[in-house]
Q: What sequence folds into this?
């Protein structure tokens, strides 16, 4: 079995997540070649075949052109699977490649079981097993689901070039907002999720964080609703954290949130819904109303 | 200008999901339905652009599914869409993203839309494929995961959400498809007068068989809960007792209370 793995490169640097693709290929028991749009001094440590397009010419985000470059690599390599990370680069580009080749795409694979691919559904509460009906397929893999595998060595480079006029022009990056809190350094994080109900309840969660000498975290919906500043957001689009203690208050556990906190040493989740996916990573799941439990716990700690 | 927004009806995600008789999707018994959350942002952004462009612009909402999807169509009309297309399909859930995209593109190709809005993914299926596939099938420009959208002089300025808080800005020529991320805007609640007005708006019904010409490219073989990892303790009962238990666990298993 042959895989063509689509590596990622951003702001002039190879992204470490590229090595998760190699972990996936190993789990699949497949031979791998890599494709990447990058600079020649930023190549992955990998001893196999590397299809390389120059980032200076092909741009970091130019999906129409990158699709054509991947198509060239596919023509030469004839892989069974073309594998992307399920990331802002991967989910944007993968369906374009699948459509061009008219082959199946299986999105956000979290496991391989009996030759089929397991993917999350229903806000990560349930799973589906999916099987491509086409000979080749495009796959995207869930962030953090497969081990990072850094084999070392130097690749055998096959250079690719293409030119194409596109109706999309990449203007540039806009940096993340300045952080007023560095959650990565916190030993305790108490996170407010949508289950807290309203903005007025944020101080209740913050009080528990303070009682434990920790920082306030927030899930995406709470930040989107304007209840808490983005600098407190935990997850793939916020900060990735691994404190000694993580308490998730009314957080359902979307995949992008779990990816940002599941490496915490000890996780307590407080949720009314016993089936909430946060329970999958929690050491302790407290089935309770957050707004009853949290103030009671803060009061007890204060005594 | 002609705009299209595609919306999907999904179950409330707080529901308990059980497999259906085929074992490949959820049973619809006892589910409450609502508009896919990502699509609410897509409708809001489309309605805002419709308001910006005024009377020279028309916004159509499209949804695929059985009669119950009429509810999300009515909501989009009450939020400000001008007219609707209901693609009647009793088994939309049995179709793969390629087929769903083919249905939408099959309808849209005769309509010469300038901009098509979709959610970046659905909450139930979560493939994040349909919007991009529609763009590829129609030959439209496309950008995904928008947290910023502006339109001026025939050009879309799209702000994409990348990882770690970083954003990427791109300019797109129309015709284009944009897929909308949570937080792009604040979706409005339909007002009572607008709900009443929406009742008079046109909803065209088209049987799916008129639009679907494609076979599925992938098959779901099973729908099931995640494997329990074990090790996690589940505590239930009186809040006072729960607090005592949790504090005892913290003292025992962590160093934070020492």
A:
């Amino acid at each position: 079995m042959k895989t063509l793995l689509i590596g990622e490169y951003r702001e002039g640097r190879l992204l470490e997540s590229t090595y998760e693709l190699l972990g996936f290929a190993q789990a699949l028991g497949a031979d791998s070649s890599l494709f990447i749009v990058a600079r020649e001094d930023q190549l992955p440590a990998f001893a196999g075949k590397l299809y390389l397009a120059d980032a200076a010419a092909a741009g970091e985000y130019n999906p129409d052109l990158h699709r054509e470059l991947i198509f060239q690599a596919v023509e030469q390599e004839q892989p069974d699977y073309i594998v992307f990370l399920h990331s802002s680069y991967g989910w944007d580009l993968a369906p374009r490649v699948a459509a061009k080749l008219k082959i199946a795409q299986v999105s956000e694979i979290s496991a391989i079981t009996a030759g089929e691919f397991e993917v999350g559904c229903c806000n990560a509460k349930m799973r589906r097993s999916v099987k491509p009906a086409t000979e080749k397929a495009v796959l995207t893999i869930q962030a953090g689901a497969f081990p990072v595998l850094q084999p070392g060595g130097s690749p055998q480079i096959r250079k690719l070039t293409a030119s194409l006029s596109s109706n999309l022009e990449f203007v540039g990056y806009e940096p993340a907002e300045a952080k007023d809190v560095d959650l990565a350094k916190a030993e305790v994080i108490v996170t407010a999720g949508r289950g807290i109900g309203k903005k007025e309840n944020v101080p209740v969660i913050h009080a528990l964080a303070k009682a434990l000498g920790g920082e306030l975290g927030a899930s995406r919906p709470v930040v989107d609703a304007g209840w808490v500043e983005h600098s407190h957001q935990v997850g793939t689009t916020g900060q990735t954290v691994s404190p000694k203690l993580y308490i998730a208050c009314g957080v359902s556990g979307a995949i992008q949130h779990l990816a940002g906190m599941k490496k915490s040493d000890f996780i307590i989740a407080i949720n009314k819904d016993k089936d909430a996916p946060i329970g999958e990573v929690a050491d302790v799941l407290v089935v309770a109303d957050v707004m009853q439990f949290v103030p009671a716990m803060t009061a007890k700690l204060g005594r | 200008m002609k705009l299209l927004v595609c919306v999907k009806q999904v179950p409330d995600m707080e529901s308990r999901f059980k497999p259906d008789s085929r074992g490949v999707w959820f049973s619809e018994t006892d589910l409450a339905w609502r508009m896919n959350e990502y699509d609410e942002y897509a409708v809001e952004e489309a309605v805002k652009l419709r308001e910006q462009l005024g009377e020279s612009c028309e916004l159509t909402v499209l949804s695929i599914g059985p009669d119950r999807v009429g509810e999300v169509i009515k909501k989009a009309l009450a939020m400000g869409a001008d007219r609707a297309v209901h693609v009647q399909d009793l088994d939309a859930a049995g179709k793969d993203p390629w087929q769903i995209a083919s249905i939408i593109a099959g309808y849209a190709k005769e309509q010469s839309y300038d901009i098509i809005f979709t959610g970046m993914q659905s909450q139930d299926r979560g493939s994040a494929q349909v919007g991009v596939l529609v763009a590829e099938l129609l030959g439209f420009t496309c950008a995904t995961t928008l947290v910023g959208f502006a339109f001026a002089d025939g050009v879309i300025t799209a702000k994409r959400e990348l990882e770690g808080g970083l954003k990427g800005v791109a300019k797109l020529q129309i015709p284009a498809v944009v897929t909308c991320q949570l937080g792009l805007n604040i979706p409005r609640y339909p007002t009572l007068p607008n709900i009443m007005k929406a009742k008079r708006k046109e909803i065209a019904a088209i049987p799916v068989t008129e639009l679907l010409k494609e076979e599925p490219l992938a098959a779901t073989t099973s729908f099931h809960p995640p494997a329990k990892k074990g090790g996690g303790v589940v505590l239930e009962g009186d809040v006072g007792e729960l607090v005592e238990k949790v504090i005892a666990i913290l003292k025992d298993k962590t160093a934070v209370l020492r």
